[in-house]
Amino acid sequence: MTSRNLVKLFKNTLVVGGVTTVIFGLFVRWHELQSFFIDFKILDIISAIAWLMLMGFLFSVISQMGFFAYLTIHRFGLGIFKSASLWNAVQIVLILFGLFDLVYLRYINFAKTGDSILPFFVPALLLLVVGLAVAWLKSKETNRAAFIPALFFMIVATLVEWVPVLRENAENWFYLMAIALLACNAYQLLILHKLNAQSEQERQSRIKQTGPVAEKNKKKKKMTKKPSI
Questions:
Q1: Structural domain containing residue 136
Q2: Domain count, the chain
Q3: What is the pLDDT of residues 146-177, one digit of tens each?
Q4: CA-to-CA distance for 22 and 76, rounded, in angstroms?
């Protein structure tokens, strides 16, 4: 990927994270912020939106760190297991293990006496449904082999990025961070192959443009070369 497209990916992912957090944050925390809008407190509204936007940027940076870490891990996985099918099997096991832990560990750590386990399935179902949808789109736009890696990234990588909130079980940020991470992860995953293709086109175009110029300079250099005698 060219440096220009890399910067483009970074900036666009920041925007995705910021906008998603602001929109969903206003919805989730409306009971806290509605007085600002009802009383038309401009400064409070601006400060609330700016705070949500800043948190969205932070979520976006975490997502991007996870994305590039996964790209490295994916290459290591293919190299270690020497087979894409074997590496896919390992990823499926890790997906199931991650979803199980998301339900079981949260239940034993945060459930109160008499609480049902069913509500603890909701985050896992959210990750699974969104992950399947994004993986299907990725495989449709690229190839079938991309389905399992995309699903692994959308579920396991999101879980790892989500850990700070999962540990604290902070209600205000639990789903807010999850939605922002899923949005950023999905965007990066679905735009990567397009930016790679665009980078390759730009590279080929640059080669075509510089080729004739280099040949012209080469001929010019031969014509202006001083005689040795």
A1: 3-196
A2: 1
A3: 999 999 999 999 999 998 888 877 777 888 99
A4: 36
pLDDT score at 229: 35
Query: Among candidates 164, 171, 166, 173, which has minimal Cα distance to 25?
Result: 173
Considering the domain boundaries, does residue 201 fall inside one?
no
Q: Is residue 169 part of a domain?
A: yes
Answer yes or no: is 183 within a domain: yes
How far, in whole angstroms, is CA 76 from its chain's centroid?
19
Q: How far apart (Å, rounded) are the C-alpha atoms in residues 60 and 82?
A: 33
The CA distances from residue 17 to 8, 22, 60, 103, 177, in Å, are 14, 9, 5, 26, 9
Short-list 135, 192, 191, CA closest to 158: 135
* DSSP, res 85: H
Q: Which one has a higher pLDDT value, 131 or 4?
A: 131
Specify the residue for token string 């997502």: 63
Token pair, residue 189, equals: 């995953």
